[in-house]
Design brief:
The protein has 570 residues and is an alpha+beta fold. The protein contains 15 helices and 17 strands. It is globular, with a radius of gyration of 33 Å. The two termini are 53 Å apart. Mean pLDDT is 81; it is low at 1-5, 7-20 and 523-570.
Length: 570
C-alpha cells in the first residue's frame, strides 16, 4: 500500500477526502452478500379480525413491557437461570411459545440499547476531548496538522459558550458512565419521540385520542421467531402455502379462538409477491421463518413481515468479479454519478446520473434510494459489467459541531446522508441480480479524479462534472489501476533535457498507485536522419545538409558536421 497525503483533509460529499495527514490506502474488497431476507405484504383484515389482533397485541405488549423492566433491573447480573425464571412466569400468563418470543425480543431490545449506550459514551468522550483541545488554544489560532494542533475559537463569546457546553457534556458523561457500570439502560417502548409528543399535542398536530391510538399501536407485540423442523417453520404465527394466516392465542384470550387448539384464523390471505417462491420453498421444507404483524394507524392498514436467514455464501474473488469491467459510482447528497470502465480502466460510453430526493419522511427517502439503485443495477446489466465499485464511506468521525460548527447546512447534510443504508440496500439488491459490490478506499477520489480525468473527458457536447470524474477514480481504484492517467517527470530527469517523455506505473504493479523508478543511466533516442537547427532559421539549403546524421547531444561524435546558424560546423 502506498502512503498518501490529501492536504488539509477537507472533503466534499461523494469525494471521500476524509484524510488529514499521511495514512495507507486500504485495499479494495468484495462486500459479502446479505445474511437475511425480509418481505412484507398487506393484510386486508375485516373489522372482527382487526379487533382480535389489536386485543392480542395490546395484551402481549403489556407482558413485554413488564419483562423489559424486569430485565433492566437485573442489569449485568442477568444469567441463564434468571432468563428461565422470567420465561416460566410469562408461560403461566400466556403460553410457552409466546413466553419464548417475548423474552427473546426483550434480550434483543436490551442489547440494542446497550450498544447505543456505548456509542453515546464514546461520542461524549470525543466531544469533550475536542472542546478541551480547542479551549486550550489561543483565540483565532490556526490549525497545524503537522504538529497535531487544532484551531482555536474565533471569539471570546464563542469560547465562553463552548466552556459552558463542556461542563454540560461532562455532567452528562458522569450519568452515562454510572448507567454503564450498573448495566442500566433507558428504553421507551413505543418510541421516545411519540412519548414526548404527548406533552406537546398541539405542536404535533394531534389530539389525545389520536395520540392514544398511535401509542397503543406502537407498543403492541405480535412477533414470533420461527423454528426449523416445526410445521411451516413457525408454530406461533403460521402462514400456509396458500396464504392462510393463524396465530396461537395466549391463555387469557383463548375464548376468541375460531380454530382448533386455541388458534385464531384470519379471513385475510397473505401473498408475498416479492420473493414469494423463495418463501414458499422455505415453509414447504419446514425451515424457520419469523413473522411480525403491525398496524399503521396513519394509513389504517395492517401488515405482515416475513424474515429468514440465508446460508452464508462464499465471497466472490476480486479478480473474478472484475473480469468484465466495473461501474464506478460516486455517492452524493442528491444523485449517484456512475461511469462504466473496461478491464484496462478506460471509460466506456457516457456518464450516468441517478437522482434521488432525501427530503421528506423516512419512507419517501427509502423509496427514492430504492428507485435510484434499481436504475443503477439495470444500467450495469445492460453494459455487461458484473461489478459495481463504491466508496467505503463512514461519516461518523466527520459529524459534530466542533469540526463543522459554523457550517450548519453541511452538518445537516452529513447527518442525513444515508451511507450505511445505501450500501446495505445496494448489496441486498445487487445479490439478486448476481452483481458484485466492490468497496474501495474513499481517499481523494474527487480531488484526483478531477485533476486527472475531468478536463480530458470534457468535450463541446459533453460537460464532465467533478462527480463524473470521481466515479472513474473509484472504478480505477477497484480495478487496481492508478487514478492518474500518466505522469510527466521533472525536466531535468527527462532523457532529452526538456522533452516529452512520460512515465507510468509498472505493468505488474497491481493494486498500487506509484510511478516507475527513473532510470539511473542516460537514455538515448535513435534518430535516422535529424537536422538540428534553431527556431526561426531556414532549413539546410545545401544538398549535403539533408544527409547529415545527428545523434543525441550527449552521444554525438565530433567528426559529424551539423548545420547551425546558417553555417556548417564540425
Amino acid at each position: 500500500m502506498m502512503l498518501v497525503d490529501c492536504g488539509d483533509g477537507v472533503f466534499g460529499t461523494g469525494g471521500g477526502e476524509q484524510m488529514g495527514g499521511l495514512r495507507e490506502l486500504a485495499g479494495s474488497f468484495v462486500v459479502p452478500g446479505p445474511a437475511g431476507v425480509a418481505v412484507r405484504d398487506r393484510l386486508r383484515v375485516s373489522a372482527a379480525d382487526a379487533a382480535v389482533l389489536a386485543e392480542v397485541g395490546r395484551f402481549l405488549g403489556s407482558l413485554a413491557a413488564g419483562d423489559l423492566a424486569e430485565r433492566s433491573r437485573q442489569g449485568l447480573g442477568h444469567d441463564a437461570a434468571g432468563w428461565a425464571v422470567r420465561k416460566r412466569a410469562l408461560t403461566g400468563k400466556s403460553s410457552a411459545r409466546w413466553a419464548g418470543s417475548i423474552t427473546k425480543a426483550t434480550h434483543d431490545q436490551w442489547a440494542l440499547a446497550r450498544r447505543g449506550q456505548a456509542a453515546h459514551r464514546g461520542w461524549l468522550r470525543g466531544q469533550i476531548a475536542s472542546i478541551e483541545a480547542r479551549l486550550a488554544r489561543p483565540l483565532g489560532a490556526k490549525a497545524n496538522r503537522r504538529e497535531g494542533l487544532v484551531r482555536g475559537y474565533g471569539s471570546r463569546g464563542e469560547w465562553h459558550a463552548k466552556s459552558r457546553r463542556l461542563q454540560t457534556l461532562k455532567n452528562r458523561l458522569v450519568s452515562v458512565e454510572a448507567d454503564w457500570a450498573a448495566g442500566r439502560v433507558r428504553v421507551v417502548r413505543g418510541g421516545k419521540r411519540l412519548a414526548h409528543a404527548r406533552h406537546h399535542l398541539e405542536a404535533a398536530g394531534l389530539d389525545e385520542a389520536a395520540w392514544r391510538r398511535r401509542w397503543q399501536a406502537a407498543r403492541m407485540l405480535l412477533a414470533a421467531d420461527g423454528e426449523s423442523g416445526k410445521r411451516l417453520g413457525n408454530e406461533t404465527i403460521r402462514v400456509t402455502d396458500i396464504g392462510q394466516l393463524s396465530i396461537k392465542l395466549p391463555a387469557p384470550l383463548v375464548h376468541l379462538a375460531n380454530a382448533p387448539h386455541g388458534r385464531y384464523l384470519l379471513d385475510a390471505t397473505v401473498r408475498f409477491r416479492h420473493r414469494g417462491q423463495e418463501w414458499r420453498d422455505r415453509i414447504t421444507a419446514n425451515r424457520a421463518v419469523a413473522y411480525r404483524i403491525h398496524h399503521d394507524v396513519l394509513r389504517g392498514r395492517w401488515y405482515v413481515t416475513a424474515s429468514w436467514q440465508r446460508a452464508a455464501a462464499s465471497v466472490l474473488p476480486l479478480d473474478t468479479a472484475l473480469a468484465r469491467g466495473v461501474v464506478g459510482v460516486d455517492m452524493n447528497d442528491d444523485h449517484l454519478a456512475a461511469w462504466q470502465l473496461d478491464v484496462h480502466g478506460n471509460p466506456v460510453g457516457e456518464p450516468q446520473r441517478f437522482f434521488y430526493d432525501l427530503t421528506g419522511s423516512t419512507e419517501h427517502r427509502d423509496a427514492q434510494i430504492r428507485h435510484a439503485l434499481t436504475r443503477l443495477l439495470h444500467h450495469t446489466r445492460r453494459g455487461g459489467a458484473a461489478a459495481i465499485a463504491i466508496e467505503d464511506l463512514d461519516f461518523a468521525a466527520e459529524k459534530g459541531r466542533e469540526k463543522h460548527g459554523r457550517n450548519k447546512r453541511f452538518r445537516r447534510l452529513l447527518s442525513r446522508f444515508p451511507t450505511a443504508k445505501l450500501k446495505a440496500r445496494l448489496v441486498s439488491m445487487a445479490a439478486e441480480q448476481d452483481i458484485a459490490v466492490v468497496a474501495v478506499d474513499p481517499a481523494c477520489t474527487s480531488k484526483w479524479g478531477a485533476q486527472h480525468w475531468q478536463k480530458p473527458l470534457t468535450t463541446p457536447r459533453r460537460k464532465t462534472s467533478r462527480h463524473d470524474a470521481a466515479s472513474i477514480a473509484v472504478g480505477r481504484r477497484a480495478l487496481g489501476h492508478p487514478i492518474r492517467r500518466r505522469t510527466t517527470p521533472p525536466p531535468p530527469h527527462q532523457s532529452d533535457g526538456a522533452g516529452h517523455r512520460t512515465v507510468q506505473a509498472r505493468p505488474d504493479a497491481r493494486r498500487r498507485e506509484e510511478t516507475r523508478p527513473q532510470p539511473t543511466g542516460p537514455r538515448t533516442r535513435c534518430v535516422s536522419l535529424v537536422v538540428e537547427r534553431k527556431r526561426g532559421t531556414p532549413a539546410c539549403p545545401t544538398p549535403f545538409g539533408a544527409a547529415l546524421l545527428s545523434h543525441s547531444p550527449g552521444n554525438r561524435p565530433h567528426s559529424h558536421s551539423v548545420f547551425r546558424n546558417g553555417r556548417t560546423t564540425s
